[in-house]
Design a protein that fits this description.
By secondary structure, the chain is α/β, with parallel strands linked by helices. The chain folds into two domains: 49 residues, no CATH class; 124 residues. It contains six helices and six strands; from the N terminus they run H-H-E-H-E-H-E-E-H-E-H-E. Strands 1, 2, 3, 4, 5 and 6 form a six-stranded parallel beta sheet that branches. Strand 4, helix 5 and strand 5 form a beta-alpha-beta unit. The chain is globular. This is F-box domain-containing protein.
């Protein structure tokens, strides 16, 4: 069993290393002279050949996330921080559920002056596949939500900063 575990670990490490190496390649990856290093490298190079890697992305003043915006982000892999500024309800949900938008190793999620639904708030708190260092939420929830209903969803890993209207303190012990 340990041989199988070691093999899987080695494959996973190799895959992650190659993918991160591809992120650092110049934008013209088609003429990369080391493209035949290994079958895995060649596979990943073809998979990410048309992708652009960006550290930060800012989505501003959107009341809805239209198809044109999603198409413009379809080949971008966001690797550090996402900031939503003055966005309406549904934008965050559509952003994270779109199969065309890719995120990788996100550190920070910022919502500034945004209106979000209670469902979007719960989805943000339940993003278990992303290891955020900090989540900053400032804005308004479209309906009243009690603090006691979100406490079970909060994980210990990231730092949370909440400044949300309609987030109700229903028990003094949480504040």
């Amino acid at each position: 069993m340990s041989t199988t575990l070691n093999t899987v670990t080695l494959k996973r490490f190799s895959y992650d290393w190659i993918r991160r190496f591809i992120e650092l390649l110049p934008s013209d990856r088609r003429n990369f002279r080391y493209q035949h290093i290994s079958p895995a490298f060649n596979f990943l190079l073809k998979k990410y050949i048309d992708h652009k890697f960006g550290k930060n992305i800012y989505i501003k003043y959107k009341n809805h996330l239209d198809n044109a915006t999603i198409r413009s982000l379809s080949n971008v892999v966001i690797t550090d921080q996402i900031t939503f500024l003055n966005c309406g309800p549904g934008v965050i949900d559509r952003f994270f559920t779109s199969p065309k938008i890719k995120t990788c190793r996100l550190l920070n999620l910022n919502l500034l002056s945004c209106r979000i639904t209670p469902d979007e708030l719960m989805k943000i708190l339940n993003f278990t596949y992303v290891k955020y260092e900090e989540i900053f939420l400032e804005g308004t929830i479209t309906e009243r939500v009690s603090v006691s209903s979100i406490i079970p969803e909060i994980r210990p890993e990231p730092k949370y900063k909440f400044c949300l209207e309609n987030l109700i303190d229903d028990q003094d012990e949480y504040i």
